[in-house]
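Let's do one together. I've listed all components of the complex below, 1101 residues spread over three lines.
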Amino acid sequence: MLNDRKQVEREAGGPAVPNNSRSTEEARVLVASQWLLMWRKFRKHRLAMVGGTITIVVYLVVLFAEFLAPFPSNAFSSQHTYAPPQPLHLFDRTAEGLRFSPYVNGYSITINQAALKREFVVDKASKVPVRLFVHGTPYKLLGLFDADLHLIGPSVYDEDPTRIIIPMYLLGADRLGRDVLSRTIYGTRISMTLGLVGVALSFVIGLTLGGVSGFYGGWVDNTIQRVIELLRSIPTIPLWMGLAAALPSDWTPLQVFLGITILLSLIGWTGLARVVRGRFLALRTEDFILSARLDGNSTARTIRVHMIPAFASHIIASLTLAIPSMILSETALSFLGLGLRPPIVSWGVLLKEAQNIRAVATAPWLLLPGIAVIITVLALNFLGDGLRDAADPYGR
Amino acid sequence: MRSDAMLEVQNLKMHFPVYGGFFRRVVGHVKAVDGVNLFICPGETLGLVGESGCGKTTTGRCIIRAYKPLDGQILYRRADGSVVDLAPLDDQSLRPYHREIRLIFQDPYSSLNPRMPVVDLVGEPLKVNKIATGKELEDRVAELLRRVGLRPEYMKRYPHAFSGGERQRIGIARALSLNPRLVICDEAVSALDVSVRAQILNLLEDLQAEFNLTYLFIAHDLSVVEYICDRVAVMYVGKLVELASTDELFAQPQHPYTEALLSAVPQPDPLIRDQKQRIVLGGEVPDPANPPSGCYFHPRCRYSDGARCMNETPALRETTPLHFVACHYAEKLSLRGVIAPRILA
Amino acid sequence: MNKSDLLLDVIDLKTQFFTDDGIVRAVDGVSFQMKRGETLCIVGESGCGKTITARSILQILDYPGRVVDGQIFFHRVRLVDGKEVRQIIDLATLKTRGPEIRDIRGKDIAMIFQEPMTSLSPIHTIGNQIMEAIRLHLPVSKSEARERAIELLRRVGIPKPAERMDAYTFQLSGGMRQRAMIAMALSCGPSLLIADEPTTALDVTTQAQILDLLRELKDDLGMSIMLITHDLGVVAEMADDVVVMYLGVVAEQGNVVDVFHDPRHPYTQALLRSIPKYGLRTAGKRLDSIRGMVPDPYSRPTGCPYHPRCDRMIPDKCDRITPPTIQIGEDRVVSCLLYDVPGLPTRSYNAPQPALCEVR
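Okay, and this is what the predicted structure of the assembly comes out as:
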């Protein structure tokens, strides 16, 4: 037996001999876990990296909206309705030469008697000083800390937080003289949160029903699949309209927000349920699942330890890809006036302002939230694509 | 149950439903395993051979009770001499037997969870069965890895860091971790390269001697089966057609299918290729959902009488001591075995 | 070797895959010759580059693979107006999508694969696919092509060929699919059939049928077969000449009997020792295995690629010097430093003289 053992060790000698040509980098790959491998694969996907960066930036905007927005979302100025964007100048030409002192030009307002409307001309002569990290309207940072710092803002703020006395409309103003930039930033918070919460809810429903469907199979699976097909066959817009109309009109904006979120996830879980079911079915027949069962694992432990980690990455990818559709649904719903209602500010609500042709013709900057939607949705889709490609790093 | 056997399978049946039509109704059954009888003695290696779709893998998976067989008995004699029928047991009562009967898979890629490092993969059975934890577990894993020819330092690595042969060693370590008595090797070396295959075959033999293991060796490669098995069972369309000692089966087969199968194997000696008369079977392996009448082999059999073979299903019977054949004419036929090659290199 | 016997002359072929993780030298200087009318087996373990060699010949490499160096001289004989026209074409220089190589693929050199489903379309009947292959290369009418296709199916042993013309691939068994693919490959009467592991996915009795069929076809149609396989049994049954490959290089080439009964390269010797001897029950005897494993393609050993596993490795020589191709007999070459002694000629390859050939 001793001889045999020697023999075995000799045969295995090849792999056992440490290979000096392998760098430490490669040695790390050998002990790399699933997530590290995924990260390596993900990194190669350029577009996904860009998408991921943008997504992170957008979510930072969500967290620090108050800090980034110069004004509160509802601060208005009756003098500056439909004021056009003011270009930001960083350097001021003074007697001593060029000096870092950001400013925007003020407006000179004329009343066009023929058209009966205010006309704004950017007045090169007047300078409105702008400061970075300026003390302005107080707020609670992350809902916890009292703060009044803003990334950028006019040097003087009104006592009343709902008023704008010194105009600084970097991206123009809307029909009540509210700052489009600030409102888009606050809209980001609502839209992205709704996307995230909605997807989380769909995820819970989808994971449960998809998992049940995939694990038990048979008539349970059949019933759930038919329900999914039924839900998917109903045209979405009428369905949303019907359900949104059912929300009581005396609800507070927050209640409406939650109501819409739940509503969207009630319709949106079907795709996720299918993904979960598909992964379950595929995994059920894998040899390593059978092997886990034969090791004496209980069903619960097999699912928890062997199956869920195996599809977690796929689920994350699908979730990422589900957020854009959630955002788009909200935008569409609010745009139609069925979703969120002012004073809640979401991208959809903001776009509703840009609904009439006059607004678009005279104040095209009102479409800005639309660009935010496009960039975010594209970024999330690229990110999701990259995640999906990296979800299974064990290609043979 | 035979007194010398460790495991005896009697009239094992496993049918899979075939769905069809608009409402996915059951329109038929694939008779993957259709009345298999065999027995395995302690310490031996029983080969189970046949072509793809003959039900050899299904038989193995029924024995380990990954499937619940439709009918039949799987009698297993424990170390203390008591006999249990594994066929009707539920998952809970199977647990102690799953420790004693283990499975080595064919595909070293899909049978190891890619998301677990080796220490967890090999240690999983110990952990789940609450045999060892922590440092003790790592020590046992290290010892197992050393035993199958892998460096224990590699236990933190993930399966993707290993080649096919090394993965198969991990699979073997997993199977050994619970000190099993019977190991079912389901095409355990089929996916491996020639040079690595020899390493694994040698390892399996060493382990058998060291731990007094009994193997059910499922394979389609007859040269490997001849090398490693003590006795061989041949399956054809869900039924066992012949069961005999390896020497006897390869030298004097008694079933025409065995004869054809043996003659079809290409031999690695160019000098005998013109001497051997290969029996090329006509036609195809029948569909196990719709097998022929009588003896399933009769449409392709060159000895078929066209009457009895067509109508009467032959039973597996003992023609000479410990040589079992399912053919009406087993005694009357004189069939050819394998021609020995010249000694190579 | 008589010049007119030569069918294929591969000289120092190098094929590399340019992946994100580096360059994989899949085929690293392969040279071999193939005679007209013979069966040449290329044998080796997975990753030795045997399939890539075959694919390089037909220029059907998958992205990101490319032939980077070497020549593949194909000695073509075609009947033009009843006269034999001989040409020597360097396949390595032809454009991968150009008309010249397309004209050769299927017509002069055909290929069959391990998995027939990869080269047969699941949405067309096999009859249509064979007819299309015929009409692509030959000026025949539809009905003539149909006749020919039925004849081909009959020739490869498909029962009731006229009925099977309208069958789809999924309606056929594995063996029948392989036959259908062979029929398609034969449709234009190629002079060389490259068969890449044609029986690996098949059962042993079906494998016997297909091997018999290939042998029969070769004799009847006078074509040459390049058979790529990892199964030494199949090699012994089929080959006239054998090329043993290891990690992208040719370890040894020679007549099948010589290679099996007098192997020279330590790898061939070890490989033959490591297989169970079928028909010679050697119970209790251990197999002589080769230690270690085939290295991964990114970290090729220096010098002789086999040296880390070789029992006869010469220290400080095999790990440094890439062994030359050494001629040790007529039509017998080995590339191993053990045979690198003065007196034995190393083989030098000369490209055919430009005057002799009409290179298109």
